[in-house]
């Protein structure tokens, strides 16, 4: 198995302790709090890569609560010039990986507030909203310097007439947290997890909004008419883990196609070397309540394909030299999809980039076309 490169980019590399504490202790500077938040009114979706002129972005607060005590958000993108039922894609963003690190105070004194695994906490509503904005290519700030997010894929899906739902994950749980037993989900063991996590719950609610009218109305959710028979799942980076988690929910409706880009589909490479990756392994133990690869990777696309349970048309875009995802975390999935899943499309771009499709329309447009039609790009 290939070894992971040593701390390849800011995504996994903690800052020095004094700077980390300065960024994260309660009441200190919060880098995402001054980013604009969408109200419930719609705004125009403006992206230089977008051809359509009538696309809008709307936002909905949900009853789920982020670790900072604020309501979690779901953001929708759609065109207003189209009529009739439209295909719909649930798009799970990258970067949702973080956890709390308890701190010890002087003997006899209350413990300080915990820090987070990341230099800048990803356990807040402002971060999650900013991350969706970055994914859409409309953020004025770079949220994750290890990625190129120009909104190429959202623009391509919008131009293709696809309604998109973007759950904003503020729990850092790799889209695994099932804090309520929604249709097959089990609440995490409180002894194993210091956070109430709802990443998968919010992703699953995005599905429920499409198929349960009463549930959508209760949450104040409203979009143009979507066609649930044309349901697609898209995962960027860590969001690819969420695609597998959703497909493992027993009441998940039929999915027409899935598209995953740069996913760490198998976390075993990190778990296999806890001395090299102590913070990452500790965070995974918090999230999954285990460091057993068989349990941690139970919801992976690899297992779905290996067991013959992947019924949707599946696309897996990756790079064997991705600086953030080692080949050992992705290649077994790529190989298994090609060998075991009819109609699977595996595209190894072999470029030293992470998140392949969202920075280049020349890649995003044919990928979106494949997702909707199954037609392979000309180069394939």
What features would you describe in this structure?
- There is one protein chain.
- With 380 residues, the protein is of the alpha/beta class.
- It has a single domain (36-373), classed as Alpha/Beta hydrolase fold, catalytic domain (Rossmann fold).
- 28% of the residues lie in helices and 17% in strands.
- The chain contains 12 helices and 11 strands.
- It has helices at residues 17-24, 125-136, 152-159, 199-211, 213-218, 239-247, 268-271, 278-288, 293-296, 301-306, 327-340, 361-373, and strands at 43-44, 55-65, 71-79, 86-92, 100-101, 115-116, 163-167, 226-236, 257-261, 313-318, 345-348.
- Strands 1-2-3-7-4-8-9-10-11 form a 9-stranded mixed sheet, sandwiched between helices. A two-stranded antiparallel ribbon has the order 5-6.
- Strand 2 and strand 3 form a beta hairpin.
- Helix 3 (152-159) crosses helix 12 (361-373).
- It starts with 16 loop residues before the first helix and ends in a 7-residue tail after the last helix.
- The model is unreliable at 1-32 and 179-193 (pLDDT under 50).
